């Protein structure tokens, strides 16, 4: 009798183990071959942009702000597609503060055909400057590729920015963002602030930011 009970328990444990294995096998890998796929994705975007930028002023290939001109590999650049041109006249400096609307995505993956959204300032499904408030960042306080883009934007510009992982979070995980991730940002620059402006200039800048949010 004891042998029968022991045998039944062993069968039950085996069944549970097999069930667990099946569940694991049926769980899709969200990021298979992630490094290789991200490199392939960005290299394709980069090559197309290099060609398109020759005739299309709304496509830009920009070398990372901290690199000399001798650096010419794809991962030394960000790719920009201009969605809307702003009317601002000043470019944010590395030491400035920027006010931005943004949505950040990864490249398409198993469960996210458009790429998983890992962060955004929008409170609506689609970007609406009338209902969304920009977030304040130090231009120097974001990943290198983002810092590069901000220093070329004018208030009111809306850009789609593609950042290779080397200019993003590199080979380390960062919260929801896996290592080796190309970052894709939809960014609108609402305005920027230069330290040392007079109070009159500061008030004018604040007014401009408010105006951009309402139009």
TrEMBL record:
| One MF term in the entry's GO annotations | peptidyl-prolyl cis-trans isomerase activity
The stretch of residues making up the signal peptide is 1-21
Give the record's keywords alphabetically: Isomerase, Rotamase, Signal
> Which Pfam families does UniProt cross-reference here?
FKBP_C
* This enzyme's EC code(s): 5.2.1.8
Q: Which InterPro entries match?
A: PPIase_dom_sf, PPIase_FKBP_dom
Look up keyword Signal and say if it applies.
yes
Catalytic reaction equation(s): [protein]-peptidylproline (omega=180) = [protein]-peptidylproline (omega=0)
Give start and end of each PPIase FKBP-type domain: 95-193
Please state which protein family the record places this protein in: Belongs to the FKBP-type PPIase family.
Q: What is this protein called?
A: Peptidyl-prolyl cis-trans isomerase
Q: Which organism is it from?
A: Segatella oris C735
